[in-house]
């Protein structure tokens, strides 16, 4: 290890009992270097970062190896000295800022706490330093935002607070663990640009943990790929993207951007039509909770979804995409407008006018796949019970238990799962497997339309590619229609026939995939496309 090296991980081995979790990994990070550690969930990336911070759970033991920060072996430090290293010399930002911030404490106080602990700053000095940090990371109205609580900030602003907290004591190394995974493409671009500018300004070294190759292409100086606890390939960025040698790395790069295949525009009949749909939520204030205004979540949206086709609904968080899906499903009360469904006897009857009793028979026709498959599946029910529930409650197919068991076996096979999985519970599966269970549950009631609400945003690139392929094959087999809600522009050509772009509750542009992706007319659409990582843009617009 040279004197100029900031961090050196040497032959690190971590075990839990007799199981090896991290298998003899070594790498070095130099001053002002962004070192990307890449791999799928479960490969050992986050575990490596916890080992550097010495925050490993007690059940995990360090079998061998060293972690050296500026010539100091961190494993040799007593805990009271390690506490001075955390936050002051090595800081960390996490994937989900909402769970990392104390919800009952003002964000400014949370950052000043770090300054008081490590630098001994008093109240007014700490406050002034926090405000200057908020300004540095681009939080608007920094003085006022100091006294806000986490729930009052957007996702991007919360992540900026976490970055400000990490930078508070001017550390030598910043560990960024999937810091942009939960963010919209425009916010992601801002956060990445912010991290690069801080690196340039402060000479900060960054260990950037991610599974997103687009982000790696944008950020990294050096890249290391992890698989099953081992580093299988390591190289400088240019060499990595041009000369990747390991088959697993090549597959990661191949899956980074879903296959760009424009779907032919077919003559198709209308299945669902939204006509000037509005969903407004009242803003209530004061002791008597008087209505003082309205949040226009959906504000006059008109869309058509055709049989056997996919309409992609694109936009940032808060644009109203998911609210449209909930309005179609009658999970929120609509303020105005109509939702016409082709299978209703009369074209003048809107789903919005139906009572719950009238709506129930139609629920089998319109199903939903949620963004987070874990919270969408009942943890106390087996896979078999989860899939069977819809068949029983909506009286779909044979009500004979053996026939239903046969149908469950058939559905599990269709979505690429083993039949024996039906006896297990959701916690026993990976994220991709849980999403397949969610798809099987939706298919069980033989729907015509499936609302896919960000179904791939929480998944690794290889699992995402598998789920998209599965949805496409099921569409061909059953002539399914999809309303595909997403903020990930790279998957649109792989899944959609048409695209609608939403901003602030309104559809600002809609058309075919080719029209929207290659000739966008609205400035907001152009901004979304320009915010996509360079690797994604290179492939999408090649």
TrEMBL record:
Q: Which domain of life is it from?
A: Bacteria
Pfam families, alphabetized: ABC_tran, oligo_HPY
Q: Which InterPro entries match?
A: AAA+_ATPase, ABC_transp_ATP-bind, ABC_transporter-like_ATP-bd, ABC_transporter-like_CS, Oligopep_ABC_C, P-loop_NTPase
* Keywords associated with the record: ATP-binding, Nucleotide-binding, Transport
User: Could you tell me which residue ranges the ABC transporter domain spans?
Assistant: 7-253, 272-529
Q: Does the keyword ATP-binding apply?
A: yes
Q: Which residues cross the membrane?
A: none
Entry GO MF terms: ATP binding
Please give the PANTHER family that the UniProt record associates with this protein.
D,D-DIPEPTIDE TRANSPORT ATP-BINDING PROTEIN DDPF-RELATED, TRANSPORT ATP-BINDING PROTEIN
Family named by the database record? Belongs to the ABC transporter superfamily.
Protein name listed in UniProt: Dipeptide ABC transporter ATP-binding protein
Query: What species is given as this protein's source?
Result: Thiomicrorhabdus lithotrophica
Lineage of producing organism: Bacteria, Pseudomonadati, Pseudomonadota, Gammaproteobacteria, Thiotrichales
């Amino acid at each position: 290890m040279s004197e100029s090296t900031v961090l050196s991980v040497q032959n690190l081995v971590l075990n839990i009992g007799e199981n090896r979790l991290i298998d003899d990994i070594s790498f070095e990070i130099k001053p002002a270097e962004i070192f990307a550690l890449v791999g799928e969930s479960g490969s050992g990336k986050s575990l490596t970062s916890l080992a550097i911070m010495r925050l490993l759970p007690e059940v995990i033991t360090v079998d061998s190896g060293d972690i050296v920060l500026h010539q100091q072996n961190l494993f040799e430090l007593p805990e009271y000295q390690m506490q001075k290293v955390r936050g002051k010399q090595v800081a960390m930002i996490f994937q989900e800022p909402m769970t990392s911030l104390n919800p009952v404490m003002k964000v400014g106080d949370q950052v000043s706490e770090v300054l008081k602990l490590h630098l001994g700053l008093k109240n007014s000095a700490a406050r002034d330093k926090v405000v200057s940090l908020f300004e540095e990371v681009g939080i608007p109205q920094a003085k006022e935002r100091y006294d806000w609580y986490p729930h009052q900030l957007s996702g991007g602003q919360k992540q900026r607070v976490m970055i400000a907290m990490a930078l508070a004591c001017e550390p030598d190394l910043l560990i960024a663990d999937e810091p942009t995974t939960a963010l919209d493409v425009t916010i992601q671009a801002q956060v990445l640009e912010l991290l690069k500018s801080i690196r340039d300004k402060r000479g900060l070294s960054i260990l950037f943990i991610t599974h997103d190759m687009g982000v790696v292409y944008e950020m990294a100086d050096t890249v290391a790929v992890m698989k099953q606890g081992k580093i299988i390939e390591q190289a400088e960025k240019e060499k990595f993207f041009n000369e990747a040698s390991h088959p697993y790395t090549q597959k990661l790069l191949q899956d980074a951007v879903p296959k760009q295949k424009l779907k032919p525009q077919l003559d198709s009949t209308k299945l669902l039509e939204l006509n000037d749909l509005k969903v407004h939520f009242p803003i209530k204030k004061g002791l008597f909770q008087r209505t003082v205004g309205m949040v226009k979540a959906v504000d006059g949206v008109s869309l058509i979804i055709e049989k056997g086709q996919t309409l992609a609904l694109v936009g940032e968080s808060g644009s109203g995409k998911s609210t449209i899906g909930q309005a179609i499903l009658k999970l929120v009360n609509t303020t105005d407008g109509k939702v016409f469904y082709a299978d209703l006897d009369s074209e003048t009857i809107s789903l919005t006018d139906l009572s719950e009793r009238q709506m129930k028979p139609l629920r089998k026709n319109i199903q939903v796949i949620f963004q987070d498959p874990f919270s969408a599946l009942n943890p106390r029910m087996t896979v078999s019970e989860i899939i069977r529930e819809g068949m029983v409650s909506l009286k779909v197919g044979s009500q004979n238990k053996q026939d239903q068991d046969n149908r469950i076996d058939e559905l599990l096979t269709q979505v690429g799962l083993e039949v024996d999985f039906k006896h297990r519970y959701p916690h026993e599966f990976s994220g991709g497997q849980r999403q397949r269970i969610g798809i099987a549950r939706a298919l069980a009631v033989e729907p015509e339309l499936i609302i896919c609400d960000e179904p791939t945003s929480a998944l690794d690139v290889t699992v995402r590619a598998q789920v998209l392929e599965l949805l496409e094959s099921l569409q061909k087999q059953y002539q399914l229609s999809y309303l595909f809600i997403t903020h990930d522009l790279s998957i649109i050509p792989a899944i959609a026939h048409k695209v609608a772009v939403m901003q602030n509750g309104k559809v600002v542009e809609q058309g075919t995939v080719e029209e929207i992706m290659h000739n966008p007319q609205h400035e907001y659409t152009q901004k979304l496309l320009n915010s996509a990582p360079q690797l994604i843009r290179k492939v999408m617009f090649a």
